[in-house]
Amino acid sequence: MKVTEVFTPGTLPKYTYYERPGRNLEESLLSAVDTPGIITAVSGPSKSGKTVLCESVIGMGSMLLITGGGVGSEATFWQRIRSKLKVPATSSSTSGQGKNREIGGSARASFGAFIAKGEGQVDGKIGRSEQEQTTFQFDELGGVELLDLVRSQKKTLVVDDFHYIDRHVQASLVEQFKEAARAGCTIVVVSVPHRSDDVIRANPDLRGRLRLVEVSYWTEDELCNIPKLGFPILNIEPDAKVIDRFAMESLSSPQLMQSLCLELCRVKQIDDKLKANTQVHLDHAEIARVLQGVAGASSCQTALDILEKGPRVRGTERNTYTMRDGATGDVYTVVLRAVASGAPRLALKYPEITEKVEQITKGEPPSGSSIVSTLDQMHKAVKDMAQDRVLEWDSEKETLNFNDPYFLYFLRWRSWDELNRTGKI
Q1: CA-CA distance, 280 to 264, in Å (whole number)?
Q2: How far apart are CA 60 and CA 65, in angstroms?
Q3: Does the structure show a pLDDT above 50 at 420?
Q4: Residue 43, SS3 per DSSP
Q5: Nearest by Cα to 158 from 296, 56, 237, 302
Q6: In the chain, where are the structural domains located?
Q7: Can you tell me whether residue 13 is helix, strand or coil?
Q8: d(Cα 391, Cα 150) in Å, to the nearest integer?
Q9: How does pLDDT run across 395-417, given as a tens digit for each residue?
Q10: Is 134 helix (H, G, I), strand (E, B) or coil?
Q11: How remote is the C-alpha of 407 from its chain's centroid?
Q12: How far apart are CA 362 and CA 372, in angstroms?
């Protein structure tokens, strides 16, 4: 058996799917989608297993999965559904008839419908063809008709990353979702916790017609069940401390834990199930390679470059700050390094951010107003990233939310600095 069959970061796990007993997520989702006229909202942190939960309960073959990333207009959303259903945007129907006349004998060829116009002379006889045809143009199917087609094909519409859809587009879509649900179409919208009320905000009439299924953050104990299920199948017995470290670094994401377990096998050059149960130890350098290897596969460099660069500087250059490890950088670099330091957290309040900034800087740290302005600019910078909104600064709640745990993970382990400084596993 291949290790890639056991640890599957990007697909529905066959051997390492953990149902999280006591949370009744599968039962709650099944009950919701089986209730006629109800729209189901699945809410949970990014990479927490929301889509995998839907695949497990609904079945991949029964899902019509649409992603909300990049949907800036209603037309874009319906075009994605047409593409999945293989329904053309426009269609036409042509009908016609043809006639053939002869003078002085019978013509060899007959001109029928849809044959190009023409006339010819055969054996001294004169032939003439006449053709008439009419083309009918049909309007494209609207949203209600497309959703009815989804229903008739016994599919469940699952809209992943619903929170990425522009709010004005959400309002129009939800109105049509409501009518389609009443007609028997099963609809599931998937979003992050702090945007779980988007459906209600888009259409308050849905109160009482919406069932919320909350996928909570995974605990470290729950995450440890993934390697506990997978490694024995491969006859691998890793160090318990390494697994505990991986659980902490996974940032509540089962997908990240799957990636770390798979990378451990690769670092130890294990491709297939071992012949006998084997204890596998990792030294400091090998742990670094595992953590760095997963960071390298996170594809977050572009987002980081945009955030670290900040907006164009006009006038006075930004101040440069020195950090305790000797590195230097402006306020954007300081804030990014600060939020990545210490124990990983997917949500940070303003006082926690300023405390982290003070902890990593040497000398005078950036002012509070400078930190807030930086967070505002970072929020604006990622707002236009259709499918890469890695973080969000809520100015009202003064909270920084990491929408994608992979980005925070990448911030922490894009280099080996922290491992080399602490020497801890």
Answers
A1: 10
A2: 9
A3: no
A4: strand
A5: 56
A6: 21-86+144-214, 220-296, 301-403
A7: coil
A8: 33
A9: 999 999 898 899 999 999 986 45
A10: strand
A11: 13
A12: 20
Q: Is 219 helix (H, G, I), strand (E, B) or coil?
A: coil
97 pLDDT above the threshold of 70? no
299-305 CB contacts, 8 Å cutoff, 24+ apart: 300/390, 300/404, 300/406, 300/407, 300/410, 300/411, 301/410, 301/414, 302/388, 303/382, 303/385, 303/388, 303/390, 303/407, 304/336, 304/407, 304/410, 304/411, 304/414
Give the strand pairing for 236-238 and 63-67: unpaired
Q: What is the pTM of this model?
A: 0.73
**Contact in structure between 143 and 51 (CB atoms under 8 Å):** no
21-86+144-214 — its CATH code? 3.40.50.300
Close Cβ partners of 176 (under 8 Å, ≥ 6 residues apart)? 143, 144, 147
Give 81-89 contacts, CB < 8 A, sequence gap 24+.
Answer: 81/146, 81/150, 81/157, 82/140, 82/141, 82/146, 85/146, 85/149, 85/150, 85/153, 87/141, 87/146, 87/149, 88/140, 89/140
Any bridge partners for residue 400, and if so which?
348, 393
Mean per-residue pLDDT for 296-314? 84
- Compute the distance between CA of residue 290 and CA of residue 266 in angstroms, rounded to an integer: 8
Order of strands across the sheet that contains 391-394? 347-349, 399-402, 391-394
